[in-house]
């Protein structure tokens, strides 16, 4: 499988969430050989979309001459698009959101009704694509935190999507927390193995991965400097 990882963290390789993604990819590699390319979005030149819709009218050419043309070509060439990002403002970090907005050249102005909603008709063939979201946050649990990012991802990629969310993710960059982070990363590796083998992850395993690694109150106390 050809996998394109778009790392949306401003911390690039030092991203807390990249620990999760690397474990997932390691699990996939254990199941079968994978071709993986990691791109740190923070290193790319991506102008903001200005909403002119020129790309939707002229066959997909944007007015901006930056890195997006090459990035979109890579997206269309991959089998799995993996978005790795930390939760910022209950959504994606700004640079990754700018990337998402600049995918407008992939569709045209014409619309069609799909189920109960309308979607722009594609100008490129991306029916083969699968989508994976791996998102971590610094809160003690998942309640009332990940929902906006999860719903946005589902709307952006309504088909063939898989989502992993992990609270307390700053602990992955703390060596002293290995006693709880290593077992969690082993669960993530198993998720990668399952995904590579069957294209899905068991719901129970997804829930385990998304649960707090240490008690919520203890994590909050540590984060607040009270422990």
TrEMBL record:
Pfam families: Flavodoxin_2. Residues 1-104 form the Flavodoxin-like fold domain. Gene3D superfamilies: 3.40.50.360. It comes from the Bacteria. This is Flavodoxin-like fold. Keywords: Flavoprotein, FMN. The lineage of its organism: Bacteria, Bacillati, Bacillota, Negativicutes, Selenomonadales.
């Amino acid at each position: 499988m050809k996998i394109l990882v778009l790392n949306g963290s401003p911390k690039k390789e030092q991203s807390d969430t990249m620990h999760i993604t690397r474990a997932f990819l390691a699990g996939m590699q254990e199941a079968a050989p994978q071709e993986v390319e990691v791109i740190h979005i923070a290193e790319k030149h991506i102008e903001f979309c200005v909403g002119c819709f020129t790309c939707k009218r002229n066959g997909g050419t944007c007015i901006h001459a930056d890195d997006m043309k090459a990035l979109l070509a890579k997206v269309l060439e991959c089998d799995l698009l993996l978005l790795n990002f930390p939760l910022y403002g209950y959504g994606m970090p700004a640079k990754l959101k700018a990337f998402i907005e600049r995918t407008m050249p992939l569709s045209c102005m014409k619309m069609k009704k799909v189920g109960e909603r309308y979607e722009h008709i594609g100008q490129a063939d991306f029916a083969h694509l699968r989508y994976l979201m791996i998102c971590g946050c610094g809160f003690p649990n998942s309640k009332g935190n990940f929902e906006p990012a999860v719903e946005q991802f589902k709307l952006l990629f309504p088909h063939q999507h898989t989502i992993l969310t992990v609270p307390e993710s700053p602990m992955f960059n703390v060596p002293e927390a290995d006693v709880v982070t290593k077992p969690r990363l082993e669960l993530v590796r198993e998720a990668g193995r399952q995904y590579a083998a069957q294209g899905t992850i068991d719901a129970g395993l997804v829930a385990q991965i998304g649960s707090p690694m240490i008690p919520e109150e203890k994590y909050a106390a540590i984060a607040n400097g009270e422990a």
